[in-house]
Amino acid sequence: MNQKVYFAGSITGGREDAEWYHSIIQHIKKTDTVLTEHVGNTAISSLGQSEYLPSEIYRQDTAWLRESDLVIAECSRPSLGVGYELAYAERFGIPCHVFFRKSRGQLSAMLSGDPYFQIYPYETEEELFAQLDSILEKSS
């Protein structure tokens, strides 16, 4: 398989899900390369990677997006950055798979209303990982 996956999750929008992102990233890494492993780094605070200028983060993230084979976004926690990354990926025709926990509320209408995005509501880790495995297998 060994596809290049851009994993998107909230950083400055809140780090409460950082451990969950880490678990998802580790699962993806069993078969594919994750370009954005730092998203699951629990040491990064909601202040983000303050040692980098915003322009450097933008250049690096958009380069990773253009290099990626697909985007997997965990959108249970609203994030302007993740929304931007998804729109950027759509602009370049990169397949986007958006996950959110049903128990956490509604997904943004801008995402759920856009037919470009593949939307996957879930509740359990097993449910999410089964959906991920199916996506990664089909995409390779």
Which terms would index this structure?
single chain; 140 residues; alpha/beta; Rossmann fold; five-stranded parallel beta sheet; 5 helices; 5 strands; globular
Structure, explained:
The protein is built from five helices and five strands. The protein is an alpha/beta fold. It has one domain: Rossmann fold. Helix 3 links the parallel strand 3 and strand 4. The chain starts with a strand and ends with a helix.
Major sheet characteristics: 5 strands, parallel
Mean pLDDT: 92
| Strand order across the largest sheet | 2-1-3-4-5
Shape assignment = globular
Q: And the CATH topology? A: Rossmann fold
Under CATH at level 1, the class stands as: Alpha Beta
Q: Specify the structural class.
A: alpha/beta
Strand content of the residues, in percent? 15-25%
How many beta-strand elements?
5
Q: Work out the count of structural domains.
A: 1
Q: What percentage of residues falls in helices of 4 or more residues?
A: 40-55%
> Taking Cα atoms only, what radius of gyration do you get, to the nearest Å?
14 Å
Outline the low-pLDDT stretches.
none
C-alpha termini separation: 5 Å
Q: What is the element string, with H for helices and E for strands?
A: EHEHEHEHEH
Give the helix tally. Answer: 5
- The CATH architecture category equals 3-Layer(aba) Sandwich
